[in-house]
Design a protein that fits this description.
This protein is α/β, with parallel strands linked by helices and 305 residues long. The chain contains seven helices and ten strands. It is 31% helix and 14% strand. The N and C termini lie far apart (85 Å). It holds the Pfam family Cutinase.
Length: 305
């Protein structure tokens, strides 16, 4: 009798642990969205909220979370964290959060929506390749193999890493952002990405209308949702539905109340005797190559145009 009881103990222990594992698996949604906001916007979803909410409305039962990172460019309102440190922190945190989420919920389909600096963060995370301007030297994709497979769709809006010529780009920009990738770069998951940028945008392109930078949700939100739907499995258990009902504050992405300044960029006094190439980031001590001028874009960067 005693030996039989001893033999039964491991089985009983396993049974006792099963409800916790089952509960964890049952709490995993079919679709989970990570949203990353733009620079100087308070913690939350910022302008990524338009697409985040569109997905939440289209797929009942899906969930979302906002990436917690500085989203700063040296301003006192966000702690004075430099743009480079903020983007690097965001990249590291996003990779860690996505890897951890997929480890917990391996069958959940992941959607990433990044706006401006948030777009740069998710660009770094899914494409790798390093980001020298932001101090990221490793060229490896920082996601696990499981996480890379779980990420089904990536929406980038106003991404400073934009450069014209990639297959996944949408919009009128024919140049590049202030931290543009090399035109020869190849993202390993380009088929999962849509990157939106218009020519008048001074952040992802070489324009001079900051208002354009804030308009991608309204202009391309439905196109982004259509792309996301095309990438999500129809057998996920969360079939898309048409809905205009807003989600409760517990699940929906709040819209940002902070707008990017509409001030027009102006030329700085920096000469053209430097080594920073066209579309590169310049400063009072880093001049542009001949034929270009260092133009002030916002409080955290200037660009050779």
């Amino acid at each position: 009798m005693l030996s039989a009881l001893v033999l039964a103990l491991p089985a009983l222990a396993a049974c006792a642990a099963m409800p916790a594992v089952l509960e964890e698996r049952q709490s995993c949604p079919n679709i989970h969205i990570f949203g990353a906001r733009e620079t100087t916007t308070p913690q939350g979803y910022g302008s990524s909220s338009t697409v985040v909410n569109d997905v939440l409305n289209a797929y009942p039962g899906s969930t979302a979370e906002a990436l917690v990172y500085p989203a700063c460019g040296g301003q006192s309102s966000c702690g004075g964290v430099s743009y480079a440190n903020s983007a690097a922190q965001g990249t590291s945190t996003a990779a860690s959060d996505i890897n951890a989420y997929v480890a917990k919920c391996p069958n959940t389909q992941i959607v990433l929506v990044g706006y401006s600096q948030g777009g740069q963060v998710f660009d770094n995370v899914v494409c790798g390749g390093g980001d020298a301007a932001e101090g990221i030297s490793s060229t490896a994709v920082p996601l696990t193999a499981a996480a890379q497979a779980a990420v089904k769709a990536v929406i980038l809006m106003g991404d400073p890493r934009y450069v014209y010529g990639f297959s996944y780009e949408v919009g009128t920009c024919r140049a590049g952002g202030f931290d543009a990738r090399s035109s020869s770069f190849q993202c390993p998951v380009g088929n999962k990405i849509q990157s939106y940028c218009d020519s008048a945008d001074p952040y992802c392109c070489n324009g001079n209308d900051a208002n354009v930078h804030q308009g991608y949700g309204a202009e391309y939100g439905q196109a982004a949702l259509t792309f996301i739907k095309s990438k999500l499995s129809s057998s996920s258990g969360s079939a898309p539905v048409s809905s205009t009902v807003a989600h409760s504050s517990a699940t929906s992405a709040p819209h940002s109340s902070t707008a990017v300044s509409s001030a027009q960029p102006t030329s700085t006094s920096v000469g053209s005797s430097g080594s920073v190439p066209k579309y590169g980031q310049c400063s009072a001590t880093k001049g542009c190559v001949a034929g270009t001028t260092c133009k002030y874009m916002n409080p955290y960067y200037s660009q050779c145009l």
